[in-house]
Amino acid sequence: MPVSPVRLNHAVLFVADLERSVRFYTEVFAMEVIAREPRADAAFLRLPRSGNHHDLGLFGVGTAGTQRRRGAVGLYHLAWQLDTIDELAAARQTLLGADAYTGESSHGATKSVYGVDPDGNEFELMWMLPRGSWGVYESSAPIDRLDLTGEIERWKGVATAGETTAKTATASLPGAVRS
Fold it and tell me: What is the Cα–Cα distance from 135 to 108, expressed in whole angstroms?
């Protein structure tokens, strides 16, 4: 029987300079350091609206860990979901201000801006259309130019992060009782 997780609980990154990375994620993402493990040169951080124990673990490895080149085998990026398109626009400005912005795109059902942390770890900040509006994007994920101004005009104030709930995930499990 296949394993059927509910969602990704947290990510862990190896970083060259732990304090530099902690500073980046607390300043750019407003994450809170909830625990430190000095023996492992590690810090665990939580997103401001998260109900999770921790969303990101950072382990300092010093200069022994060299920056991975783009396109190499391994993790490409982490994707953090935002609640509204307005938050995506604000995130774009924050990334530009932190000199961490690397691009943006529309994937149909999702709208994304991309960035990079001080160690070159890439990440995506994304907003998802309301589930009922996916239409032709139900089974496709194009990589198109993002018209952020047009998307804001169309979707301003529409919150969708709450649509990804345990109820939705549970309903798709084999043998789940549907109400």
Answer: 9
* CA dist., res. 129 & res. 155, Å (int): 8
For residue 159, give every residue at least 6 positions away whose Cβ sits within 8 Å of its Cβ, in sequence order, or none: 83, 84
Residues near 155 by beta carbon (within 8 Å), at least 6 away in sequence: 84, 85, 127, 129
Asked if 84 and 158 count as a contact pair (C-beta separation under 8 A), the reply is yes
Per-residue pLDDT tens for 55-77?
Answer: 999 999 987 656 667 766 677 89
Please say whether the beta carbons of 119 and 91 come within 8 A. Answer: no
Q: 126 by DSSP, 3-state: which?
A: strand
Q: How far apart are the C-alpha atoms of 81 and 83, rounded to whole Å?
A: 7
What is d(CA 56, CA 25) in angstroms, rounded to the nearest whole number?
9
Cβ atoms of 110 and 129 closer than 8 Å: yes
Segment holding 92, helix H or strand E = helix 85-97
Residue 166: band (very low, low, confident or very high) from pLDDT cuts 50, 70, 90: very low
